[in-house]
Amino acid sequence: MRRLPSENALQRNYVHPIDQSLGSGIATAYNAYVKTGDLTGSAATSFTSLVPFAENTGVISTLQSHSKNDNTYLNGPATSDKVMCLSCHRAHASGFPEMLRWNMEGEFMVYNSQYPGTDTTPTVPQFARGRLGAETQAAYYDRPVTQFGSYQRVLCNKCHAKD
Description:
Layout: E1 2-4, E2 14-16, H1 23-32, H2 60-66, H3 133-139, H4 157-160
Antiparallel strand pairs: 1-2
């Protein structure tokens, strides 16, 4: 387990295990989770680069065959695959505090079918972080908002299935 420092009082001293097998419960949740309100996914199509995992193999040819950027290999995790720091954090630049892959300062990544922004969701500024909706979309690699639930909760739920 690793203690993660945080400037956000809600997340301060948050502890999350790393380098441990996902197990059947988390692997099953990951594979079923499509978006908030939709748990109809399958292991063959469940991978998202917003919530990556470490495959439990060191075989380079296997990893190379899985390393695609054209959506031809989207298999989700097996029970022996592992959570890693990069499952929740980006390696370098991030649009969010603590280099997270999504905004943890509010409950929703998508609000009323729109990316949070001072122009798109002005009545809920806590989700926008002072950005325009297009800037929030860019922080999610310009994914179409339709890939998420109309009130998409944070992607911790991809593994933990709390929404």
